[in-house]
Specification:
0% strand, 63 residues, elongated, 3 helices
Length: 63
Amino acid sequence: MHAAQNKREICLQTSVSYFHSASQQAEAGDLEAAGTLILKALDQERRAGALGPQILQLIKPRN
């Protein structure tokens, strides 16, 4: 359980880093790079959300 929590935290920290870099790129006027970094950040958030037990698996375990 701790391994999944650690991976989740790493994904969230990476996401924050990408968002920060995207903000810097946008301020510098490089909107294409900012958009790419935002997509990477959103992917990391998605990965963080996918870690851990899934609700349906808790309700009905797979055999």
